[in-house]
Write a sequence for this structure.
């Protein structure tokens, strides 16, 4: 049987595992304790690998939460600025009092690093919720809604940031995805495939259908790996013609 290509990368190994697991549902092998033992080991390691690969989504989610927070913070500044530009009135005077608070922070707060922005936004929201500004905030229904939105987006950002910190700590104390991928490749090449090859000869009726489709799956994946390597080589030769 074909073995997983030596140069298969983590995502490619994960795809192979996914295919092996899905094919086992269509070509089940039952009443074989050793096969079940290997397959459970492969499945567990596959779940671990996919979890590590998917860890990157947290960074993307945090960026989305920060963008939402920035939007809500800017909306507060724009709303107050619009109210301050109206003719003198009691509402304008209240808006000017709120503006005094906002001017201490400035809209540029949204351009700071996550940590600095978070500290600044929390302080700003705390100042805007101070008892002495209660009447000013209450006088503008739209402003109160925008303030609530900013508080909510700030809370959602904090949740995502906490998840990212927890995930980072877990990954720093655990094996990397590439290490798990190599372990998984070893299970496939040195345990599952060797066993399937032997049992396909000993009991072809039971094992060969599954072994054949797994073999085709791995062969297709290996061809993709070769195509990827060839494309990388061509690109490298184009960038560095002196290597030809």
């Amino acid at each position: 049987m074909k073995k997983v290509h030596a140069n298969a990368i983590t995502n490619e190994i994960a795809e192979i595992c996914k295919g092996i697991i899905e094919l086992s549902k269509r070509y089940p092998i039952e009443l074989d304790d050793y096969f079940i033992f290997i397959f459970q080991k492969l499945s567990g390691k596959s779940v671990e690998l996919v979890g590590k690969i998917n860890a990157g989504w947290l960074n993307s989610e945090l960026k989305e939460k920060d963008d939402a927070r920035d939007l809500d913070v800017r909306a507060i500044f724009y709303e107050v600025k619009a109210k301050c530009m109206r003719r003198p009135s009691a509402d304008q005077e209240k808006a000017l009092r709120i503006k005094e608070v906002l001017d201490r922070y400035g809209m540029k707060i949204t351009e700071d690093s996550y940590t600095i922005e978070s500290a600044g936004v929390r302080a700003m929201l705390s100042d805007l919720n101070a008892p002495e500004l209660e009447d000013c905030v209450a006088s503008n229904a739209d402003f109160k809604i925008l303030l609530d939105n900013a508080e909510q987006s700030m809370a959602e950002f904090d949740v995502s940031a906490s998840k990212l910190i927890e995930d980072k700590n877990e990954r720093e104390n655990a094996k990397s995805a590439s290490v798990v991928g190599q372990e998984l490749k070893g299970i496939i090449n040195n345990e599952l495939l060797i066993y399937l090859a032997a049992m396909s000869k000993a009991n072809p009726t039971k094992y060969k259908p599954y072994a054949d489709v797994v073999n085709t799956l791995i062969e297709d994946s290996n061809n993709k790996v070769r195509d990827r390597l060839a494309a990388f080589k061509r690109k490298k030769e184009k960038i560095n013609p002196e290597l030809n």
Residues 61-173 form one domain. The chain is about 80% helix and 0% strand. The CA atoms of residues 41 and 51 lie 16 Å apart. The chain has two domains: 10-57+176-235, 61-173.
